[in-house]
Amino acid sequence: MASVLITGASKGIGRATVAEFARRGHRVIATARDPRTLGGLPADQRLALDVTDPDTIAPAVREAGEIDVLVSNAGEIFYAAVEATPPAVFTRLLDVNTIGALRVAQAVLPGMRARGHGRLLFVSSTAGRIVRPRQAAYAATKWALEALVEALVIEAGPLGIEAALLEPGAVSSGALDHVTTYTLPGDPYAHLLTASGARAPAR
Questions:
Q1: Is the residue at 87 inside a domain?
Q2: C-alpha closest to that of 52 among 10, 94, 86, 109
Q3: Residue 33 within any structural domain of the chain
Q4: What amino acid positions are annotated as catalytic residues?
Q5: What digits encode the pLDDT tens for the residues 106-153?
Q6: What pTM does this model have?
Q7: Which residues contact 175 (CB under 8 A, 6 or more apart)?
Q8: Where on the phi/psi map is residue 116: left (φ > 0), alpha (ψ -120 to 50), or beta?
Q9: Is residue 203 in a domain?
Q10: I need a labelling partner for 47 at 20 to 30 A (CA). Which of 15, 21, 41, 153 fits?
Q11: Residue 169 C-alpha from the chain's centroid
Q12: To 10 degrees, what angle do helices 100-115 and 54-64 make?
């Protein structure tokens, strides 16, 4: 039995992952910004953890105890053509999807190094390899995440720590039902909605 900490466990892939690990008999620590959203999950612990807030990460990792597996799943998305992408909103997305994953990995790695074993699974996306119109910002955060994880494989492997990426396509989690979209006045990129669609990277 392994101890598994899962971020972004309130819905979608994260919530399903909690249920699956619990079904297999593992000790599951489900986390989310608001632990009240974790109600009904078959988790051993339900903890507050906001990947953008280091002040919540350290206490959650301490309370979780020994962590054998990290499933780094927390993520967000918005749609916008590159010209219409608000830099401040892009910065927030990068903080959640990429830097947030880095923060949590850095919090669990010392314990894994001390024990000489551990596994880290990072939920990326097919958008981590392929860019579609209006998804450049989201894809950029996933491309950056994939670079970090590929380096982590090389660096942490000799220490007994495995790291891997998961690249799902679109899933029926509801996360794409009400995605915020940013457009320019008159939206010169409106044709992209019908030419290739604004939907469906992952989550």
A1: yes
A2: 94
A3: yes
A4: 138
A5: 999 999 999 999 999 999 998 888 889 999 999 999 999 999 999 999
A6: 0.91
A7: 11, 12, 77, 203
A8: left
A9: no
A10: 153
A11: 14
A12: 30
